[in-house]
Amino acid sequence: MTKAEIIAEIASKTGIEKVDVQETVEAFFKVVKSSMVSGENVYVRGFGSFVVKKRAKKTARNISKNTAIIIPEHFVPSFKPAKVFVDKVKIGNKNSINA
Fold first, then answer.
1. Residue 46 included in any domain
2. Domain interval for residue 57
3. Do residues 35 and 55 share a domain?
4. Distance between CA atoms of 95 and 97, rounded to whole angstroms?
5. Can you tell me the mean pLDDT for 45-57?
6. Are residues 7 and 33 in the same domain?
7. At residue 96, does pLDDT exceed 50?
8. Do 35 and 67 belong to one domain?
9. pLDDT band of 92, cuts 50, 70, 90
10. 91 located within any domain
11. Could you give the angle at the alpha carbon of 42 between the alpha carbons of 6 and 86, nearest 5°?
12. Is residue 45 part of a domain?
């Protein structure tokens, strides 16, 4: 499902104009991105957590040149779904596979 499809689905279910839904969805993503860039985690109860994970410094290999390179410590965005959400997906997939 694409962002445009999500916007269309929300607009049809709520009766809100697509333009307003798009602005809201874009604002949500902007807030999540800016919070994570500043090092804050975002928690959405019943859905999941957008968290910033720290990757430690490590040594890797450049196979084409056969040399070792150092990858410095860095941070990556990550999503951890809520248990309720994971359970619903498991049940939903079970039903769709058996159908």
1. no
2. 51-99
3. no
4. 6
5. 95
6. yes
7. yes
8. no
9. confident
10. yes
11. 60
12. no
